[in-house]
Amino acid sequence: MTAPINRAIAELTIRQSLARRRWIIVAILAALPVVMALVLRPYLQDNAERLNAAVDICSTVAFTVVVPIIALVLASAGFGAEIDDGTVVYLLTKPTERSTIAITKLVVTAALALALNGASVALVGIILLRGTGSTNLGVGFAAGAVLGSILYAAIFLALGLITRRGMLVGLVYLVVWEGVLSRLFAGTRTFSVRQYMMSVTDAIAKADAAVFTAELPHARAYIMSGVVTAAALGYCIRRLRDFEVGHTA
Question: Tell me: the pLDDT tens digits for 153-181?
Fold first, then answer.
């Protein structure tokens, strides 16, 4: 039985994900919410202001911009870079199960993204929520960032097998669907990763509704998160099995 994770593919994925100065981009993005929290902290007068600032930074800056774009930058290199530089041929000619390739790519990409996003959001919580008695809110946002990292990594890895313009298509998706439509129309929230992140945060934080509340039921967010991950991973495996050596997507 083949191991679900291949070490050589994992090392290759790490190098590709952080190559071409991508590590600088993702590091700057991860630092953005932390810097904002540090700048705002001296001007916040009481716990209520610190709570509101933490919610604004995490739900708007982190969940809308930082988490998805870090995942997009890392995942766009997962398959897209290999197709561009031809190393996909190396993968497909090796006696490695397509499922092992896809799972390894997802695990490595998601791990890099969630480490950066989880640490970024957790630091915002430590800076702004320490002493407010709202530790659960910080834990909830960190959990939401981790979930979003996994889901976006799965989606954008699959996108890299659909089109060579994965970065551009991913940005359009984030702006149009996650940034606009899912906020304006309640029916679209069932298919919004950001809403899943908000729902998980709400379930863990159990904060006062005046401070933070989600717009998607918790159970629906859990189910849809599983569906999205399974669908994206399943697509990657099937696409790789159909992929012919020499094909350029």
Answer: 999 999 988 888 888 999 999 999 988 88
Q: Which residue has the tokens 């991508």?
A: 22
Rounded percentage of the chain residues whose pLDDT exceeds 90: 58
3-state secondary structure labels for all residues of 96-156: CCHHHHHHHHHHHHHHHHHHHHHHHHHHHHHHHHCCCCCHHHHHHHHHHHHHHHHHHHHHH
Token pair, residue 151, equals: 């889901």
Residue 198: what are its φ and ψ, rounded to 5°? -65, -40
Cα–Cα distance, 122 to 126 (Å, whole number): 6
Output the six-digit token pair for 128: 């702004």
Q: How far apart are the first and last CA of the chain?
A: 30
- Residue corresponding to tokens 């774009």: 69
Tell whether the model's pLDDT for residue 48 goes beyond 60: yes
Q: Which amino acid is at 232?
A: A
Residue 217, sorted as left (phi over 0), alpha (psi -120 to 50) or beta, turns out to be beta
